[in-house]
TrEMBL record:
Domain (Regulator of ribonuclease activity B): residue spans on this chain: 154-257
Protein name, entry field: DUF695 domain-containing protein
One Pfam family in the UniProt entry: DUF695
DUF695 domain: residues covered: 25-143
Xref: Gene3D superfamilies: RraB-like
Taxonomic source organism: Corallococcus carmarthensis
Length: 264
């Protein structure tokens, strides 16, 4: 979808997380606020700015003593490049480098970007790379957290809301869940496995899909009695995702429950 080139059409929501990769440990910062807009047809070009760390730790990650300096450069570069239409969506730290990712219009050239970077890179020799990425693969596949990492974050938000309302999180109650599948047989296979885990009242129905392309999806609604503290809901999410992320190709849309403020 299109948007004014110099403004983010979303509210920023940066999250950081740690992960292991085949190359070693990584820390990732991602603006999850961009996810409903990705990919943006108006911003098909990926810019990768690399800041070689001055004093990385032995595992290649950023030392806490260097954090402020690196983020100061990252922030000023993002601010100075935004008038060109470059929108920062995240960064990745690994192997002694902090790489910053931005998307911009195809009309912006390296001749426009490099002078801005050189003027505001401070003590860092920032590398600049421009590549076509109309599908926002770097954002959606490389920076985006795994389904379980993402759901754990969602669990924290949901439980925090319940706690703020005075919910007795350790009181078991019916917790409802929802998942989507591209084909009916996949939904039926997942339904059988969910039933084996004690989930009940599993209902499968066809629903229209609007994005990424119009079509049909099969939705499963199901529930089970559980407590809703963070640890338990993380366990439940892992149970469900172990089923969905296998050959069933499903997506988990999260959970809900009634507020419980008094012991039954």
């Amino acid at each position: 979808m299109s948007a004014p080139s110099s403004a983010k059409p979303w509210q920023e929501s940066f999250e950081a997380y740690f992960r292991w990769s085949t190359e070693g440990p990584q820390t990732v910062g991602i603006d999850l606020g961009a996810s409903p807009h990705a990919p943006m047809a108006s911003h098909p070009v990926l810019w990768r700015l690399t800041l070689p760390l001055k004093n990385p730790m032995s595992n290649g990650l950023r030392d806490s003593d260097e954090e402020d300096a690196v983020f100061a450069v990252q922030d000023v570069l993002a601010a100075r490049l935004r008038p060109l239409g470059l929108l920062m969506v995240g960064h990745l730290v690994a192997q002694g480098t902090q790489a910053v990712y931005l998307y911009g219009p195809k009309s912006v050239t390296a001749k426009q970007v490099r002078p801005v970077v050189q003027a505001h890179q401070g003590a860092y020799e920032v590398g600049v790379a421009r590549t076509r990425d109309p599908d926002w693969t770097a954002y959606l596949r490389m920076l985006f957290p795994s389904p379980l990492q993402y759901q754990v974050r969602m669990n924290r938000q949901r439980v925090a809301l319940l706690r703020a309302e005075g919910d007795l999180l350790n009181v078991a109650r019916k917790v409802t869940h929802r998942a989507h599948f591209p084909w009916e047989q996949l939904a039926k296979d997942a339904e059988a496995r969910l039933r084996d885990l004690g989930f009940e009242d599993i209902r499968c129905q066809i629903v229209p899909q609007i994005v990424p392309v119009p079509g049909l999806m099969w939705r499963l609604d199901f529930h089970r009695v559980d407590t809703v503290d963070e640890a338990r809901m993380d366990e439940v999410a892992e149970e469900i995702l172990d089923i969905l992320m296998g050959p069933h190709l499903g997506t988990y849309d999260g959970w809900g429950c009634l507020l419980v403020t008094e012991h039954p």
